[in-house]
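Lab meeting minutes (informal)
Scribe: AK
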Amino acid sequence: MRSNELQQKHSKVLGFLSTLMPAAIFLLILNWLFNITPLQKLQGMPLLMSLPSLLGFILAGISLKRSLGRTGKLGMVMNSILFILPFLYWTLGTVFFGA
């Protein structure tokens, strides 16, 4: 009984971490695209930072394996979108603007 509760708590923490990582990177990408703050020293780096979202994907997978929770599912979806985003940006940028 106690082990099951501990496993669910670990699952929630892993799910929370797997959603927090892409949310922070997504905010950096929005700042880069729309110049929300004057801090633009990172330039295109936030877009490249989304590629290590595989770590968040793995954390979400472990969270879902332990217990099917909403945060694990949300983390899986957010990390999947964040992983595909740079490739989509590069492909659409090349198609529409040439290079």
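Next up, CB showed the second protein from the same session:
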Amino acid sequence: MISPKTVSENIRYWREQRNYTQAYVADQAGISRRWYISLENGMVIPQISHILAIAEVLNIEPDLLFKKEQKSDKLLKEGDIEEQVKQVIRKALEKLL
């Protein structure tokens, strides 16, 4: 089981990798600054909606926030997302045909 501390540490890690302030991430994710600071300090447990919003702001895959070690920077790029969506649609269409 993953600990809330791991999630908090990973959020801080990725925020610092992007050179974002806590205020910037909180504002962009639609989360109060006070709550976000509590999150990074491991004092609150985020809901999945918070995880998704924060991952989007940090431009990372949400699963990276749950990993015990951060070994690589898996950035999501618009082209990558678009290609992934196309692949999913192709596979779904192949199953239907």
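CB comment: Residues 52 and 90 are 25 Å apart (CA to CA).
No objections, moving on.
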